[in-house]
Automatic annotation (TrEMBL):
Binding site for NAD(+): 71-76, 105-109, 129-130, 142, 151, 169-172
Residues the entry annotates as binding Zn(2+): E184, H247, H264
Name this protein carries in UniProt: 3-dehydroquinate synthase
Organism name: Methylobacillus rhizosphaerae
Main subcellular location of this protein, as a coarse class: cytoplasm
Amino acid sequence: MQTLHVDLGERSYPIHIGRGLLNQPELILPHLKRKQVAIVTNTTVAPLYLEKLAQPLRDAGVKVIPIILPDGEAYKNSATLNLIYDALLENRCERSTTVIALGGGVIGDLTGYAAATYLRGVPFIQVPTTLLSQVDSSVGGKTGINHPLGKNMIGAFYQPQVVLADIDTLSTLPERELSAGLAEVIKYGLIRDEPFFAWQESNMQKLLALDTEAMSYAIYRSCENKAEVVAADERESGERALLNLGHTFGHAIENAMGYGVWLHGEAVAAGTMLAADLSRRLGWLSDDDIKRIVAIFTEARLPVHAPALGVERYLDLMGLDKKVVDGQIRLVLQQGIGKSLVSSEYDAQLLRETLAIAA
Ligand SMILES: NC(=O)c1ccc[n+]([C@@H]2O[C@H](COP(=O)([O-])OP(=O)(O)OC[C@H]3O[C@@H](n4cnc5c(N)ncnc54)[C@H](O)[C@@H]3O)[C@@H](O)[C@H]2O)c1
Ligand SMILES: O=C(O)C(=O)C[C@@H](O)[C@H](O)[C@H](O)COP(=O)(O)O
Ligand SMILES: [Zn+2]
């Protein structure tokens, strides 16, 4: 097992990455205020992993309250959030009850927001079971739900007590979901870590084959990048916005296509290609850079063409992004591989030309 730390003063926490972690209650017990936990999961993950996590905790004397939600991005909403509150209240959960998210990013974001708001805040633990949630969503404390008008529009910054990324859980992950997770791995290379990007170019086949050594390294290096950015800018007043590469376009795609039709990672990949295209038009990325980005997404089995929503529809949806200031869309753009910036200083006509190429 490898352990990293997110350094946030009194909100600091460890990220444990390794095999067989679900079956190690000693990684959870020190973080409990009381021997009671509510484990929030979904109908897909529960039959696979709920008992693997719950039974060792029960054996250690912990009362476990399972809360099993419907599965899917379409359920990341206020109605499902209410199901969590209902179950916590029906079981008379107190401020000392710890809420554990067992699942992918949808479960993590929903559960984290429930934990941030139930009784005005109860302790929360992340047990991510998708690649995307192990490399990104379980770390950094962004929690929340979607609104029909926009992705993640309601939420809170709320950090977990500990993150347990058990690599064994990836063995049951559908291939399409594995690829979606790789989109966020690729993101770290593109925004701030060119050597990691180059490593991915040489090791993508190993990652697709779930090679343990390569996968452990990719998760560790991704979390290391995210932990550094979050420690420097927890609430996204500056550098953290770089983690949004491709997301202003991607969230528009997810919303327009209907939540869950395009997976988050797929929309981020297509959105990153649009950001790369605009960066090339600005003279900041070379044709060779573009070729490398297309090649890595293609090898990871991710889309490189965004859907044809129409320029006006893209602009309308992108205008609801959280990075908007004074009505101005701010975009994460690239100045080479491994170098990125947030900018509203682009020619609006160039953005229109980029959006017009969406296939
Ligand atoms: N909070 C953040 O910082 C952050 C970062 C990135 C993404 N997100 C959010 O995360 C969500 C996407 O997360 P995701 O890609 O994990 O999707 P997801 O949570 O929908 O999980 C993908 C699918 O895999 C299933 N699953 C989970 N673990 C499994 C396993 N081990 N074996 C088999 N099936 C398994 C799930 O039930 C689901 O059907 C989006 O809502 C996105 O907005 C949040
Ligand atoms: O942690 C962050 O900061 C990120 O931006 C990570 C993203 O991968 C993630 O999808 C996040 O939820 C997007 O944030 P949002 O503020 O645009 O909703
Ligand atoms: Zn994301």
